[in-house]
Amino acid sequence: MTGAAEDDDYEAGPPSQRLAQIGEIVAARLTAAQGVQTIPVDGIEMFVRPDFLTVEECARLIAMIDTDSQPSSLFSEGADNSFRTSHSCNLDRWDEEVEAIDIRVCELMGIDPSHGETLQGQRYRMGQEFKPHHDFFHINQSYWADMEATGGQRSWTAMIYLNMPEAGGATDFPMAGISVNPRSGLLLAWNNMGPNGAPNLRTLHAGAPVIAGTKYIVTKWFRERPWI
């Protein structure tokens, strides 16, 4: 995650025919998929799939996150320590259970698995949060050269809630005026690009502070080209 909020100092990126085409293909796939619901959000393509994971699958992923998580990092330069206070870890993509879930996410999205980053698990304890940021890369930042060389821009995000904290922990999209509350097994997907394939500033989102309990999620980001 970039950790870059909407700011005139950040250059998001130009239109892209490739990313526009990816957006059209994935949106059509999700619209037609059984069990997937379109969320009517102004200016963002967003979908949910309830009960994408079983209670047992969620429990196994939570255990993996608790075993391997470390303080979450940011791409962004100069971000303060309070910007992202969760713990996270890249899940073992060669673990049979993780691989099976990863493949299911790719199949649902209709994106070749080679374009997907490793599933990342995240844990938010009481008071922890991720302040407003974009998942796409800002091309005027120092990290962009490496990201461009290893698969390019992030196209879609797929996030799965593994549990429901006692209070708080919603995913807020402040520019779109919508919040999604955690629900065990629920997959939330959105296109980080606009219709012309340029990064969509309206996808600004935040992991709201957990008020009580602990929140667990896994996130998968997809690139415009194969991720290497």
TrEMBL record:
Keywords: Dioxygenase, Iron, Metal-binding, Oxidoreductase, Vitamin C. SMART domains: P4Hc. The keyword Ribosomal protein does not apply. Residues 115-224 form the Fe2OG dioxygenase domain. Its cofactor is L-ascorbate. PROSITE patterns: FE2OG_OXY. GO terms for molecular function: dioxygenase activity; iron ion binding; L-ascorbic acid binding; oxidoreductase activity, acting on paired donors, with incorporation or reduction of molecular oxygen. InterPro entries: Oxoglu/Fe-dep_dioxygenase_dom, P4HA-like, Pro_4_hyd_alph, Pro_4_hyd_alph_FE2OG_OXY. This is 2OG-Fe(II) oxygenase. It comes from Sphingomonas cavernae.
